[in-house]
């Protein structure tokens, strides 16, 4: 039987080259059983004419499918579905009946219902995206990343790409972090003191599991990164929210029975406060007095374009008391899922064993690509380019905020990529965000950052990491107008 | 000051092109502070002569470093370390003093000390690697994987590459699994019933966390996959080892108070037993009688080259009782870290929330690359090629095992990639493995697969997924000889 040419059509939203679309169309027809073994494909000429594309494109697609054994050719008579083509499913799928399982009982532990807000995936479609933490396509060094990824896909790196490392990491990436990234933060660490993680999120999660139990107490900043609150809630430890001021976490406010202190000294999340040296020393003193550990999330230290970053807490730590969390998510891109933990060996050993049980190791290809990108100097060039751009945007932001009489509640002393903003008391920023969306403006309401059941409702975060300079003034004006209209 | 040309040398073990090595050498000199701002680099001519390489190579490396702002050029006078180059560390790293922290007390939960054996990373250097679960470079379709990865790195996929998906996955990969992979196992699932995981390991871990507590009981096969035992030990649930025979798990041996049953019906790990249809139905009956859930690890179903694979348990399940674990680690490569969970929506919802807290999502680039590789038909072609190769090797294995009078304790009815072997009672296969290593033969001792404190010592696993056919006979002969010598 010949397959009628009419069953083939190009999907208007399809991605990939025309050749790939044809390959996919035929492979999927075979895999779903719509095209049977021995059935004859339309000739390259007729399919090309039907789809309105070049015949050579169809011929190349057919040749690929021949090579992959989906098709056979019988001399000049044409192309047929191969006998060796993968067989369609032999069993009819079961119908979708209601479960006999009582899931309320069957689920032993619940993890849904956290407080981490979900941001719109299509933020790029908004005209004024004051959104935090997504990669800006105009700043990212896509070309060199691609080259490094390609190199990491080469024959020479076959083992790195494919191997099961069990609990280990790519030695090249570890070496670069130890020899180049950490010295810049004043940290000296041996490879056994470093663990690669799936982003800072994974680093914080692993740390919480190893250090906290139901009988221990964690102190965390209030307001803070909401996903950290979810992690601590799931670990079922006691949690003490500790106030922050314009210098970050207040050491004296940390309760006496605290075991682990989570802090973001470079740019407090979300107020962006930078902790001065004196406060850093006081925090270390307080931790020593309590015999507590400190987990230092050093995110965004690279974005210190106003002044050089302060030494990390870890670099001031003589006791092995500080566990350091680094991340490439902000400086490269969050979809990379690559961060690292630095700490004393007994701690890293447990975190490594847990990571091996949870997921083995971050994919080898990702680790090697990052190692190349870092070691060839592209990373530093990228950070400098991003810092320059953020510096420029920040100035435009400040001018626009001033011109529109909006109120800044917190700003990083050294840089960063956002302002923490305060609207008048009567403005619920959740409502403000909804109203602004309709005007193609994205802002982040502040309430989810706060602990407790009655968070302040009038804060919001304005990031400038993804919005072009030219859009800032108009975006800020929209915000001011909307706040005015809510007055 | 001019940097003397003598400070430059090419490391004999260095990877990458010469141009990249020069770039790296200079970037690292600057980053570590060895080369200071304004210092003059050797001329391209003298550096090329010194290193014995082409001048154009040096020129291109310098030009790259110019573009990245590591170097500046002053007309014809040469290249200098740029003022804009990244600064070396400003703080001297703290010396490595003993910790003041008492880690015995500070660590709340221990995860080290598991039973999962670590395999040699350099297995490729062994002449007779009867090693399990690593990618065979001679079988993997490296060229097409590279092409798909490259496509997934394109501008069009920038968002997929870089974005923070929060708790979501690449819709293209989910769609392919739902429409093409699962129907082949007789499974029909909606996107909300599928979760992408970092390999099967991560899928099993997530499942254990959601379903098990300290008050619940898991039944697992004895012998079984050691990493699953580690996962269950860490979850602190009650664990019942259940005997397997040549048809896999024995349903009647599952204790009455079991909540969750873990099983590997396609190829029991490690005995490779294939569960027949009748046994599958009996297992489902037993689970229903207990109102227990079943976690079906369907690894290696693709390698059913002797007969078509049996329908999955999940395809026979009318109750929503079966949670299905799929993996691309065996059929693609383990370093990919990509698998998936299929189950009822209430279960997947909790697993998704937990995954988001632990690691957010598997890297976007990996997901999209796999989606392309699958949808273009390369995956099916690869599986067919691997199946053919494994079929051939298995025949050679069987002949050699017979010729050398070794004893097979378990073999997959439909295929697989290993034999489960039994040595004479007095042979400790841990010792056998050590002795064989000296002869460049790698085997896997069987004891870690068993539960309990007194595992049988005389079993071992022989995999043929990474050893060329031509090496098999000699390798088996070495094993027979060594067993004889231990007699």
From TrEMBL, chains A, B:
InterPro entries, sorted: Aminotransferase_I/II_large, HTH_trans_reg/aminotransferase, PyrdxlP-dep_Trfase, PyrdxlP-dep_Trfase_major, Tscrpt_reg_HTH_GntR, WH-like_DNA-bd_sf, WH_DNA-bd_sf
Xref: Gene3D superfamilies: Type I PLP-dependent aspartate aminotransferase-like (Major domain) (3.40.640.10), Winged helix-like DNA-binding domain superfamily/Winged helix DNA-binding domain (1.10.10.10)
CDD domains in the cross-refs: AAT_like, WHTH_GntR
GO function terms (MF aspect): DNA binding; DNA-binding transcription factor activity; pyridoxal phosphate binding
Highest rank taxon of the organism: Bacteria
Keyword set, alphabetical order: DNA-binding, Pyridoxal phosphate, Transcription, Transcription regulation
Family stated for the protein in its record: In the C-terminal section; belongs to the class-I pyridoxal-phosphate-dependent aminotransferase family.
Protein name: Transcriptional regulator, GntR family
């Amino acid at each position: 039987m010949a397959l009628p040419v009419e069953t083939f059509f190009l999907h208007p939203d399809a991605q990939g080259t025309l050749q790939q679309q044809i390959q996919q169309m035929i492979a999927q027809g075979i895999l779903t059983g719509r095209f049977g073994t021995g059935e004859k494909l339309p000739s390259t000429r007729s399919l090309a004419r039907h789809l309105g594309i070049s015949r050579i494109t169809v011929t190349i697609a057919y040749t690929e499918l021949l090579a992959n054994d989906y098709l056979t050719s019988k001399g000049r008579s044409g192309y047929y579905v191969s006998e060796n083509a993968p067989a369609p499913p032999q069993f009819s799928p079961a119908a979708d009946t209601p479960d006999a399982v009582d899931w309320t009982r069957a689920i032993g532990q619940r993890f849904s219902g956290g407080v981490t807000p979900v941001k719109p995936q299509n933020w790029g479609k908004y005209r004024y995206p004051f959104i935090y933490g997504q990669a800006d396509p105009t700043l990212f060094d896509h070309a060199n990343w691609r080259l490094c990824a390609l190199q990491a896909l080469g024959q020479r790196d076959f083992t790195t790409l494919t191997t099961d490392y069990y609990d280990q990491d790519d030695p090249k990436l570890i070496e670069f972090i130890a020899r180049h990234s950490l010295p810049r933060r004043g940290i000296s660490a041996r490879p056994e003191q470093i663990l690669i993680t799936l982003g800072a999120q994974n680093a914080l999660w692993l740390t919480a599991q190893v250090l906290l139990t139901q009988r221990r107490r964690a102190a965390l900043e209030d307001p803070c990164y909401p996903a950290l609150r979810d992690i601590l809630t799931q670990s079922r430890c006691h949690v003490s929210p500790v106030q922050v001021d314009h210098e970050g976490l207040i050491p004296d406010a940390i309760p006496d029975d605290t075991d682990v202190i989570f802090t973001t000294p470079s740019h407090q999340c979300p107020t962006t406060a930078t902790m001065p040296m004196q406060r850093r020393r006081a925090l270390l003193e307080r931790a020593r007095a309590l015999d507590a550990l400190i987990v230092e999330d050093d995110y965004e230290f690279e974005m210190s374009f106003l002044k050089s970053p302060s030494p990390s807490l870890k670099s001031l730590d003589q006791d092995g008391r500080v566990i350091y969390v680094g991340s490439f998510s902000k400086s490269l891109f969050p979809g990379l899922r690559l961060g690292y933990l630095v700490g004393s060996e007994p701690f890293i050993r447990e975190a490594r064993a847990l990571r091996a049980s949870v997921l083995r190791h971050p994919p080898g290809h990702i680790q090697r690509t990052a190692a190349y990108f870092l070691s060839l100097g592209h990373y530093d060039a990228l950070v400098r380019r991003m810092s320059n751009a953020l510096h420029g945007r920040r100035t435009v932001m400040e001018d626009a905020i001033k011109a529109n009489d909006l109120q800044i509640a917190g700003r990083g002393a050294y840089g960063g990529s956002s302002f923490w903003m305060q609207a008048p008391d009567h403005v619920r920023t959740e409502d403000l965000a909804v109203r602004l969306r309709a005007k193609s403006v994205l802002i982040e309401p502040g309430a989810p950052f706060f602990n407790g059941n009655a968070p302040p409702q009038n804060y919001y975060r304005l990031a400038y990491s993804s919005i072009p300079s030219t859009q800032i003034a108009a975006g800020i004006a929209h915000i001011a107008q909307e706040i005015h209209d809510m007055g």
